[in-house]
Specification:
It contains 18 helices and no strands. The chain is mostly helical.
């Protein structure tokens, strides 16, 4: 690691720890890439639900239920993790849950709609809860001015993790199809592959990442402390108006992003006529551009500022939606898909870093719980809107993607009013810390 990279780390943090933290993004990305985006989503609509008119809506409703459960539990889990210094222990539990229920998806076949929904709800709940917990380590391992850079390292490595999982699954699917196997035979195996990669790649996180927080409550008062701290966060929200405004912005622009993540394979197959292999290849390439976007924009964010970087990525999202809506053939759709990759990596990384930048010291897990709350609300709003439009319009996926673009426009309007320097100063003042410094 170069001297410049070392200067991005918080005091006492070793490079191996940052690598082990980023490896969790590598490990869990296979779940979203293979299960939610590329393989199981389209399999659920076409095979499990038999392309019924309500199939896309059923898929989005299952995701919405899992995100609703995360919304209810995330602030409490975050506050309890802070009170007990238990982020790492809780992360281990959520990781085990996601791996177990992902592997169980291998048992789902034609007509198993109810069982498939239950397993998606459970696996996605544990995935989302773990995502909040790993994000809460970021302010402990990175200096405030380098949060965007270090967050970008994690996101970029995460996209390579998705690339590895998707590449292995693509190789297997290509082989299976060459042997005459159908989706009902090769999709279950991809679920087992994804679960195994998650389990193996997450080991460095639990071996090397340290829990630096100190318990703030004894065992008998942990639950009461969690509720009390959540109540305090809500009562004192006026101190963090820029963080609050950005969380509202997140709900809207993430509604668009989560729609793309959840419906990409369905759109490719239903609107563009892509095969399973074509879809896997497309999303594999998108993961490469997403990794480039996350890494490059982490550096851009630290130079340009948090808010201008997010505005830039949202403008890219609007262009992406228009291109996908206009595409009649594969060529233009491939252009749109690769622009998705650049925007996806950069906007996800930038959003996580800005929340860390604006969060009060010592309460990062709690406020990242609120970040998770906003993202999960968007994950209900966006995909459900898409599913409802396709159901009501008799399967018009182009209309649904066009309406999705409005969420990015709303996000741009809201984030324009966020002042990152003012928000950081407010969070430090509320906890007795120093001034923030950099404008956003």
């Amino acid at each position: 690691m170069t001297e410049a990279a070392r200067s991005s780390l918080a005091p006492g943090v070793r490079p191996r720890e940052v690598w082990s933290w980023a490896m969790y993004d590598f490990a869990n990305s296979g779940y979203t890439t293979v299960v939610i985006t590329a393989v199981f989503s389209a399999y659920f609509v076409a095979e499990v639900a038999g392309n019924a008119p309500w199939a896309t809506f059923a898929w989005t409703a299952a995701l919405a239920l899992s995100y609703a459960l995360i919304m209810v539990s995330a602030p409490l889990i975050g506050a309890w993790a802070d009170a007990r210094a238990a982020k790492k222990r809780l992360l281990a539990a959520t990781t085990l849950g996601c791996i177990t229920f992902t592997a169980a998806l291998a048992c789902i076949g034609r007509g198993d709609v109810a069982a498939g929904i239950v397993l998606i709800v459970l696996s996605n709940f544990f995935f989302g809860s773990g995502e909040n917990l790993i994000a809460a380590f970021l302010p402990e391992i990175a200096e405030g001015e380098a949060l965007g850079r270090v967050s970008g390292w994690g996101w970029s490595l995460g996209y390579f993790g998705g690339l590895v999982a998707l590449g292995i699954c693509l190789a297997y699917v290509t082989h299976a199809q060459g042997q005459g196997a159908g989706a009902a035979e090769f999709v279950p195996v991809t679920m087992l592959i994804t679960a195994a990669i998650f389990a193996l790649a997450s080991l460095p996180t639990f071996l090397f990442l340290r829990e630096r927080a100190r318990p703030q409550a004894d065992a008998g008062t942990a639950v009461r402390a969690a509720f009390a701290r959540l109540g305090e966060t809500l009562r004192t929200a006026r101190r963090y108006r820029d963080l609050r405004r950005f969380l509202v912005c997140l709900v809207f622009y993430q509604a668009g992003i989560q729609t793309v993540i959840a419906l990409a394979a369905i759109y490719a197959q239903q609107a563009m006529g892509f095969s399973t292999r074509d879809t896997l290849l497309l999303i594999l390439v998108v993961n490469v551009t997403a990794a480039i976007g996350a890494f490059a924009f982490g550096h851009v964010q630290d130079r340009l500022g948090h808010v201008p970087t997010i505005m830039l990525t949202l403008a890219g999202w609007v262009l992406t939606v228009l291109l996908a809506w206009m595409a009649e053939g594969a060529a233009l759709f491939w252009v749109a898909a690769n622009l998705v990759g650049l925007c996806l990596g950069s906007s996800q990384s930038a959003g996580r870093a800005l929340v860390g930048y604006l969060s009060p010291p010592g309460r990062q897990a709690e406020f990242f719980g609120l970040w998770g709350l906003a993202v999960k609300l968007s994950s209900i709003l966006g995909p459900l809107t898409y599913g409802a439009v396709t159901w009501a319009s008799g399967g018009d996926h182009r209309l649904a993607i066009l309406i999705t673009g409005s969420y990015f426009l709303i996000g741009m309007a809201i984030v324009a009013g966020v002042d990152a320097a003012r928000g950081r100063a407010a969070s430090r003042a509320a906890t007795g810390g120093g001034e923030a410094g950099r404008s956003g």
